[in-house]
């Protein structure tokens, strides 16, 4: 701008700077306090940020004193009375007996079974649900429950309060949670913790592709397939997690002593 040009108006709104035609005709306080006019503002991105913040605060506040916990993932379509349902129920009970809270997505199928198993032995049963077009609500075995609007907030809470992931057969949502966890561990964003796939027959094709294609073509490192463990027996699942945590605890103790 030359010295002969008129100086454009300027308004600062918090960290934002607005000039010229981008300066609104009213202030933020005016729009907040004026009851008249459209209500579209409650659906705008700034308002969504507050909702997102509220979800984080609610989730962190609810689970801050949860203690050691394991998240169990798997299909919402697994039917009660089936093998996957029974396996998830046994895993939930076994984890609860070992002193872990059990966290699921709070829905039916594998999630319901794991919550049921934990609750049946007096353990802590947690459900982190999500708002979906076909609303299902939390299953009846959830004792501590929270339903989220946003997937990414829910994922953050899963990761923050879990010390292990157990993944039973499932669909795209289950794969999403699995690879989210593997990626965070691989990149060092979270402390390494056990990721156990349950059901060798179901998962062996995926593991073969990871080794024979991804690893063979140099898309992942030699150590990366070792981030995932497979098991079939519910007792083995609990054992793998307990042993991994015992090993981590002993390494921390050794590090403190050196």
Task: Please describe what this structure looks like.
The protein has a single domain (53-257), classed as 3-Layer(aba) Sandwich (Rossmann fold), CATH 3.40.50. β8, α7 and β9 form a beta-alpha-beta unit. The protein is globular and about 70 Å long. The termini are far apart. It has helices at residues 28-33, 45-63, 83-97, 110-120, 151-160, 172-186, 200-215, 234-257; strands at residues 10-13, 16-19, 69-73, 101-104, 125-130, 144-148, 165-167, 195-198, 229-231. The strands form two sheets. It has a seven-stranded parallel beta sheet, sandwiched between helices. The chain has eight helices and nine strands. Mean pLDDT is 87; it is low at 1-6. Helices cover 45% and strands 15% of the residues. With 258 residues, it is α/β, with parallel strands linked by helices.
Task: Give the tags.
258 residues, alpha/beta, Rossmann fold, 7-stranded parallel sheet, two-stranded antiparallel sheet, 9 strands, 45% helix
Shape: globular
Fraction of residues in helices? 40-55%
CATH C-level category? Alpha Beta
Strand tally? 9
Across the major sheet, the strand order is 6-5-4-3-7-8-9
Largest sheet features: 7 strands, parallel
As residue ranges, the low-confidence spans are: 1-6
């Amino acid at each position: 701008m030359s010295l002969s040009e008129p100086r454009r108006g300027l308004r600062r709104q918090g960290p934002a700077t607005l000039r010229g035609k981008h300066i609104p005709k009213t202030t933020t306080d005016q729009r907040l306090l004026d009851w008249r006019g459209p209500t579209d503002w409650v659906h705008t991105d700034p308002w969504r940020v507050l909702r997102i913040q509220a979800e984080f605060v609610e989730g962190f506040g609810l689970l801050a004193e949860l203690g050691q916990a394991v998240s169990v993932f798997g299909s919402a379509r697994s039917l009660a009375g089936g093998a996957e349902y029974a396996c998830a129920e046994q895993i939930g009970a076994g984890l609860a007996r070992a002193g872990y809270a059990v966290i699921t997505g709070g829905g039916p199928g594998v999630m319901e079974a794991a919550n049921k198993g934990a609750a049946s032995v007096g353990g802590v049963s947690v459900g982190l649900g999500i708002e979906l077009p076909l609303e299902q609500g939390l299953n009846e075995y959830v004792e501590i429950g929270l339903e989220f609007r946003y997937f990414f907030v829910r994922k953050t809470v899963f990761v923050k309060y879990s010390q292990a992931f157990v993944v039973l057969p499932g669909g795209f949502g289950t794969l999403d949670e699995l690879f989210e966890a593997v990626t965070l561990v691989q990149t060092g964003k979270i402390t390494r913790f056990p990721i156990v796939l349950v059901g060798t027959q179901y998962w062996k094709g995926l593991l073969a592709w990871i080794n024979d294609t991804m690893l063979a073509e140099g898309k992942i490192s030699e150590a990366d397939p070792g981030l995932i463990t497979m098991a079939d027996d519910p007792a083995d699942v609990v054992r793998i997690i307990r042993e991994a945590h015992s090993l981590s605890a002993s390494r921390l103790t050794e590090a403190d002593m050196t």
